[in-house]
Amino acid sequence: MSGSVDVKQHYSKKKSSQKQRSHYESISHHSSRSCVSQHSYAAHKSSHAITTTGVQQSFVQLEKGSEFIPSKLLPPRVKKYLAMDPDTNELIGYVVPVFRTSHEFSRGLVEVQEEVKEEGVGQVAMRNLFSRATSSMETSSMETSSMEMVTVEKKSRKKNIRESAERMQLSKKIEERVELRKKQNSDNLTHPPEFIVRPRGQTVWEGKTVKLHCTVAGWPKPRVAWYKNNVLIDAKTHPDKYTVESNYNMHSLEIKNCDFLDTAQYRASSLNIKGERSCIATVVIKSRKSLEGVESPCCPATHGVTFHADIIESFEVAFGREGETLSLGCTVIVYPTIKRYQPDVVWYRDGVALSESKWVHSHWSGDKATLTLVHLNKEDEGLYTLRVNTKSGFQTHSAYVFVRDEEVELEGVPVAPLDVLCHDANKDYVVVTWKQPAVEGESPILGYLIDRCEVGQHHWAQCNETPVKYARFPVTGLIEGKTYTFRVRAINRAGVSRPSRASDPVTAIDPHDRARHRGPSAPFTGMIKFTEEDATVGVVPGEPTDLVVTEATKSYVVLAWTPPTQRGHEGVMYIVEKCIAGTDCWQRANTGIPVKSPRFALFDLAEGNTYSFRVRCFNSAGVSESSAPTAPITVGDMLDLPAAPGPAVATRNTDTSVVVSWGASKDVKHLVGYYIDHSVVGSNVWTPCNNKPVKETRFVCHGLTTGDLCVFRVKAVNAAGYSATSVESEAVVVKAAIAVSDVPIGVHLVEAARDYMVVGWKEPIVTGGADIRGYFVDYRTVKAGFIGQWRELNHKALTTTSYKAENLKENYFYQFQVRAVNMVGISEASLPSMALECKEYTLAKPGVPRCLHVLEVRNTSVVLLWEPPTFDGRSPVNGYYVDLKEAAPGEDWKGANNKATKLKYMKVNGLIAGRSYVFRVRAQNLAGVGEPSTVLGPVLALTMPGTHEIVLDVDDDGVISMIFECSKMAEGSKFVWSKNYKAMTDTSRLTIVTEGTIFNEPSLEDLGIFSCEVTNTDGVSASYNLTEAVIPFKTEMAMDLLEKGRVRFWTQVEKFTSDCKVEYVFNDVIVENGKKYTMNFDKNTGIIEMFMDSLMVTDEGTFTFNLIDGKAKGSTSLVLIGEVTQSVFLPGPHFVDYLDFEVTPECNVLLKATVRFYNRTSSCLFFGLQLCRKDAGMYEVKLKDDRGKDISLFNLTDAGTETLLSWFYCIQLIYYGSTAPLLWFHCVLELLSSSNDSSDRISYSDRVNEPTEKDKGKYTINISDGKDGVKRVCDLSGQGRICAHTHTHTHIKVFLLASYRARVVGGLPDVVTIQEGKSLNLTGNVWGDPTPEVSWLKNDKELVSDERYALKFENGKFASITIASVTPTDSGKYALLVKNKYGTEAGEFTVSV
């Protein structure tokens, strides 16, 4: 038999009396608040003393004229607060201790600030005291009877449970009464905040989490804020760093992942209408690095510093495909720069902070934030936001990432579902949900297949035999304690889709068991309970409760219930029964395996039938009673398909995007989102704009083709399926919307006098898609550093790009700004001009050039244009100088031209792709060079994607035209053609069409640079230099020697018509087909040929082919004059190179001559393996045929042998950086230096560095094999003339074994082009003995191996460099530099990102 024992202990009456008296005395300072006089308090003490000493006073009159109540009927708590007159035994007052009750009750009394009717203190006390008199009678009598004794009472378990329930019900009533009193309480109890529990300072290690707590009381309820070094902490700005909580007057601040910067004084400030209170706690963060000698200041250096963060080089809208890897990056500048301070960088997707996972990796390098999405999936689609948090604020940048479906393996099958999630996991049951894909395939989706896989294994098991169409499925039959992942596949008539991304792992465990084992303990009630639990054997469980149907579809019905309270410690299982409505026949539903969790899914129910369900539970002791049956449920889908969205409305946005909006679906339940499709008019092919449903009713569709005419439609989706599509939108052209134009540029002074100034400007580069209708000019005065207010000069829009500002004051300075206006509105103001003085120009040197701008920006060049200065000075401007430099700190200006150019444009070459440059121009006259112009730039040297060049074309009629294509046309864009970068005013010789220029009568007057600029674009432009050869040739004229001395002159034309004619000219005389010349023009291949049987000396001169093709002309020539072509006129075979020798690396001697025989060239070779004295003599080679003969001799007599041996054993003196041939020696070397009649032995590898006077002399080398030898002398007494070559360097080295020099022998390309975000790895093969030293250079600056650059040198042969996730800043000129004691070499290559 189980039971319980209650033990109650109390102090004696004497101690209780002393405790009560001390309590009243301790709160005497609150007497003014309770409005109880000292007399009442004394009366109370006396009455209390009389009562406690046993004076016979058995009745109390509560109010005058009222009945006397026996005092024993009043609870002791009431008697404690009655102030009685000891003489008349009448109630004369009440004692109200303000904080007598618990803190929770006191807070409840004062929390409500509603205005209520004010009552006297006596009425308040009366109501509060006697409202619970009846409920406390029994408790008071129990306390009185057990004042000095211990009561032991045994209770059964059932009685104990019943009493617990009664106590809970009583507590609920008390809470309701407390809430009622809150509304009835007045403001007379308000008081300022008071810290009951103060935050405590802490010292922790770096990387830990700190939590500060405090408890604050006060009325009205105070607000608490946290400060760090007197700076307000905004937890919303730093959600990953701080967490602030406030519950039941308990406040906390959590600091996560602490570091040095978190060392500070933290202040909790509480405030209400009565005042403010603060409490400070010091937090010290200790670093383990400080133990290693690294300085770790306890006070951060960021106190009082205001930080500014700017996001530059931000990522744009990105597109990826499933399975690919995508990187997003931004360059972040935080200033001022403080050591060890880094901003908080957080990435978000659709407003949810991203954390590190197997799919998401983020990196912060100090100035670059990168997010890498590994193996993209449709779940990764969304709006990505980079948020950079500093202590002074934050900056954000957002862009959308689209993920396109992977190509399907079988045509017509649906694409994979997405967002597979697990819910309501139990012991053997889990609910799997997913989202339908955007593309169903060639036929509607018939259903979905769910697969599961146990974590740690690779086998996927199908969970459902029949496909389910509802995007929610309960999976049963799981093993308790096992962890699973799930995936989903879609199926239609064409086949099965690829599986979705696997869900997060979920463990099969009963959440109710977890809650029962880990639930919170009951609060201490002042009573110690000893409970003897019932035996677990033999306890029949109670019936389940709260049985409901949570889901009902055509395929299944899901039941849920609450486990029984009475079940002991033994586990229970469940029996589910069903009954057809209208009958009383209950059938067991789970006939196979008992149910372990309070969830169950019933399949194979007849659609349309109505059922009721009930549940029993059982264990080893028996079966419980059945639960209350559910209401009748008809088998069918409880969730309907969503209604079709409202009509789609499409509006233009950019050149590649359109904004689509629509009306929300009406009366839709559990909406998942919307899918948007688009189709090019006439194609009848619908393409999804998003692969992840969106819940908003507005979406920007990116990735469209400029100029396409598209229509859009929308469909809604929920778990039941897809809705019908909306009404299609009206067709809209994909191009940029009309907007306000950019600001005018280049505001400058054109003319100035004593009382007026003429200012000019250039129209905006981007007009906003509409024509500029006019301009407004503003001006302001600048005097002694004070700047006045802007004032309008014209109230009516100007149609010109200049304006005359009149009625100005002489010697005053003015600034001007201009605004442009189009059909949309007025643009922002341009940049103010420099302060211009209103006076006549009298300087000798010219003014500054103006209106600098660039065209034709390419990887290595840019065309810079400018306007002449407003004032020429005392003499006209006769030239200009162009300066440029890289847009980087520390770079110096350098001139682009050494000689002044008279043109007002220049093509600047030699730029490096991917670098930014700034430009300026200076004008020159006879007085000198004037001041430089305003700096233009920075300009990025980079050829934009889709850039085209001007093409010269000749049609079939011989009409010459230049064509320029532009793929970035916007509304209002126009082609503006110019010649030599001047607007073409005389168009009589040309016909200008939309995309080209046609020459009417081509002549020499048409030669020049023709350029075309497209307005309302980002500087799209190109040029073509039209030279005299207007008909393009694939190859210039060439000559071939054929057999028997025949000669062929030929060329090939690139483009021509059938009417093209050729004139064959020799020395300005037209020759015709005849005995000496044979002509041929193959119009299929464009090859023009002229043959001659032989060439004589009289044939020296110029051969020319003149082409006439309608209005087009062209010519090409070949000159045969001088000694260079003399060999061509030799009648027979002859020597091209006469007989000479060559020493091979194997020490063999080759005698070689080069001869020409007909059109072929060959070599005659004689060689001896071991050259000796007996080989001496004269060697002769003869050539002879019927056309002539030629002879070549080589002297190998005594003198000739000495020459050969001298060459064979020679040494070569070269300079650093040169290359020496490989020489082989099998002998002893000895090098002697003879200077000032002294002989010293020196090493063969010695060098003469920076020679001085003492190094002059003769250097001798003796080469001997023990029997014979040779001596060679090098004279370094004079100017150092070596090997008949003179060099300006002073470093000379003797190389005997040049092959030992350090070299880069291969492996490196000349140019590397790589996509941004990819990793670059290059390996170079090096050689040298001894092993060379290896270093890498970027733009002539040495690189150091770090987390950005990984530099390796392995096995003394392979040098590699790896750059992770390249960016445009990695573009540049790189070099692999190898060096040893024999020399240095660099392998250079260019990287373009």
Automatic annotation (TrEMBL):
The keyword Repeat applies. Pfam families: fn3, I-set. Residues 10-21 have a biased composition (Basic residues). It is found in: Cytoplasm. Residues 1-40, 135-168, 499-523 are annotated as: Disordered. It comes from the Eukaryota. The keyword Metal-binding does not apply. Keywords: Cytoplasm, Immunoglobulin domain, Muscle protein, Repeat, Thick filament. Its main location: cytoplasm. Residues 193-292, 300-402, 938-1027, 1314-1392 form the Ig-like domain. Residues 416-511, 543-638, 644-739, 743-841, 848-946 form the Fibronectin type-III domain. Residues 135-150 have a biased composition (Low complexity). One of its GO terms (molecular function) is structural molecule activity. GO terms for cellular component: cytoplasm; myosin filament. SUPFAM superfamilies: Fibronectin type III (SSF49265), Immunoglobulin (SSF48726). PANTHER family: MYOMESIN-1, TITIN. This is Myomesin 1a (skelemin). It comes from Esox lucius. The lineage of its organism: Eukaryota, Metazoa, Chordata, Craniata, Vertebrata.
